[in-house]
Queue: 2 jobs
Job 1
Amino acid sequence: MFHGVFVARVVGFPTMTVRRPLTRLLAALGVALTVLPSLAAAQVACNGGASCALTVTLRLGRPQVFRLALSDGTTTVPPLSSSDFATGFKDVAGPTVSVLANSPYRITVQAALSTWQYSGSQANPAKGAADLQWSRSASGPWFASSNASTLWPASGSSAPATAGTTVPLFYRTLWQWTSSPPGTYALPVNITLTSP
Amino acid sequence: MKVTRIIAAAAMSAVLAGTAQAQANTANCTGGTPSASPCRVQNTVSATIPWVARMSIASATTLPSPIAEDFGNTAGKSTTAPTTLTVSANAGVSVTATAASAIWTGPYAKPASDLRIFLPSAPTSFLALNNTTGQPVFSSTTPTSSTNVDIGYNVLYSWGTDIPGSYTLAVNYTLTSP
């Protein structure tokens, strides 16, 4: 679906001027310029005289486009102590989520697996994904990653188009004496952008 | 020429946008029409958990004062209320007790072995303490959360050596991974 039309005036030699700020914005957003094949293949001609004028019409498609990026693909929980087990949790700052979008969007967070991956000498405790919680703030509130929850917007069903929004992500990992044996744990978390 | 370049650039951009849709499970995702194909990036949270254990106990225990019948009695003088040791561990654990020194501090060099420990469940099975070898107090092959271990103390008194005064002996409790 096309939402706009560009008209470039060609004088003499087929040169064309396109407003640069727009092209830069489009490039930043990763927008694809689409030129109708029929127009691209159309012939333009200018015959005779010291100068002549041709009009070339370019149609610009404006699809929904976006960019979603994380500052880091991994988050490592600091070493735990007995005090962390006594309190039952250990917090860690996660990545920063960056968004560019030309239409309303929503970002959700959900663990990619139902249980943590475990590697160690003990039997796999099948630690549930609910033992990983996330928040927009270091002080909470915290949401279980076992269910898909909206990271952004903080309220409402969708956020408006943005030329750059960053959302911090914080994790709270839950640990229990009897179900968190020594070993290495990993849980992939999906951060998903959708249009409402 | 410039028209050609712009068209070529536009075509290339369209190709890149199309391939970006297929990206997933990376730290970046760029594309279009998220309603048709959600953009997904992934962050993996990892943690390395060591063997972790914790225990707590009252810092001091006052033993009952002996009476004449306790001197020379091989059954010694026992505490009437146990001291509770609380143990937590995320894997198997054992606890031993050791005297911190070979003798008590006090008016007489009372040997550490005059202090014995026992479990209330076996009130006459005494384990004499020394400062070299730990006596077993608690052991578990599975994780434990706040397990209470009651410990009793028993002291031997001798007419010939235990002169009046105040005596003190520190006892070390040691957690180890079996």
Job 2
Amino acid sequence: MENRIEKRIELKAPVSRVWRALTDYREFGEWFRVKLEGPFVPGQISRGHITYPGYEHVKWEAVVQKMEPERLFSFTWPHVKSFDPPDYPTDYSKQPTTLVEFRLEKTATGTLLQVTESGFESIPSDWRLEAVRRNDGGWTEQMKNIESYVAQKP
Amino acid sequence: MSRKSRRRVTAQRQAPAPVFAALGDKTRLLLVAKLCGGQPRSISQLTRGSRLTRQAITKHLRVLERAEIVRSVRAGRESLFEFNPKPMEEIKQYLDFVSEQWDQALARLKSFVET
């Protein structure tokens, strides 16, 4: 069983543009949906909070590892079992962490971005994020309901 | 199983060991491969064909047991080990969840840099 996540995505934008979107804290915040307090600095903690609807109470906390211009950006960040109170932890220092790496490569049409997340060895086996799953299931159900409703009453 | 060791197992069940950490070993992966067919096996059966001693195999089985990847079942006087797929299914679900979050974030990044 694979214990890491690997994503590759082709972006029709120059490497310099993608690098800025990844490492400028305001730009990163735009697409990642997090409000960061300040710039990314290797070896330092980056703090902020999530702006994704429904998760605004969730803290962002990551330790910036490497920033090799237009090549590699990496950080470690904590994982939590639940985003819902009372199980949501306010102290991240005891949470298991994983390593996130963004690698950039110039292509004929733009940039190949590779994202890897590794270190899931430290995540306990009983994590299911039940609250999140329940929401997801709920919405899928809702969509199906609407779909069949519309199909029956065109 | 003595009463003492049974209590130890109960205590361990409350705090499962991380699945990936338990699987991060060649011998333990081999043991899981032998057991995941569903047929419970004894320590002797699991030691057969291995260069390791019965004690070493037992130690590895205990690590897997703490991670709840295997559990011991009684068959008469013998203690057998069987595969429990649940923790691996659960951790896979967690990884699928994280993976899905990345897909969404990268889709947002794509439209962010391409427009």
